[in-house]
Specification:
With about 220 residues, this protein is α+β, with helices and mostly antiparallel strands. It contains 4 helices and 8 strands, in the order H-E-E-H-E-E-H-H-E-E-E-E.
């Protein structure tokens, strides 16, 4: 038998070069995609001192995935898009505002989950304190209650909920978590949903030295 017949036929070199090029291209594409996503998320989330007094941070027009990645699952607006959030913290409390687009069925599920949270003393209380039961009000009146405090700072420029309309549904919760004379504290939650354009507006506040009427 001819010995040359047993010698393996070498493959063309360009095949190895192309494979190497394809592998490098794939790696570069993955790295670029990750960098682009991280830059977009970092650019959307603005603020400093997230845990200290006087912190002010937020984001605008996030996808649901971006929101979940940046802020965790304590508040989970499943099915929402174009999510904007701002958190303003002071020495005596905090304000949180949110706006998002969410379909009616997802809004109903969100309110149901939130109402369930309001039955949990650990969720509602402040450092284990709770001086009254949670009061829930379902109404088509979008006005804030007269005994609620003013925000500690300016509201976000994008937070402009409608004041009236036949498609508005409003849900509010409030609780007096401490009624002592030296350190009274109250909390409130405001959900306003516009069924016409599927926009949800949320305001949550927590304020020391504040007392709700009749609580």
């Amino acid at each position: 038998m001819d010995a040359s017949a047993e010698t393996p036929i070498p493959k063309p070199r360009f095949q190895f070069a192309l494979r190497k090029l394809f592998a490098m291209t794939f790696i570069v594409a993955v790295v670029c995609a990750a960098a682009t996503y991280g830059w977009r998320l970092a650019n959307a989330i603005r603020g400093v001192n997230l845990l200290g007094f006087g912190s002010d941070h937020g984001a605008e027009n996030l996808t649901y995935e971006e929101f979940s990645s940046a802020f965790g699952s304590d508040f989970d607006p499943q099915g929402a898009s174009q999510i904007s959030l701002r958190v303003l913290q002071s020495r005596d409390g905090y304000d949180e505002w949110a706006k998002m687009t969410i379909a009616a069925d997802h809004y109903a599920a969100l309110v149901k989950r939130f109402a369930k949270n309001m039955e949990d003393p650990d969720f509602v209380s402040y450092k284990g304190k709770m001086a009254s039961d949670v009061l829930r009000i379902q109404t088509d009146d979008s006005r804030f209650p007269a005994d609620w405090p003013e925000p500690d700072g300016d509201t976000p420029r994008w937070w402009l909920p409608p004041s009236a309309g036949s498609d508005l549904v409003c849900a509010r919760w409030e609780v007096q978590v401490d009624d002592s004379s030296y350190s009274s504290r109250a909390k409130g939650w405001y959900f306003l949903y516009n069924r016409a354009d599927q926009t949800l507006w949320i305001w949550e506040w927590n304020r020391q030295h504040h007392r709700l009427e009749g609580r």
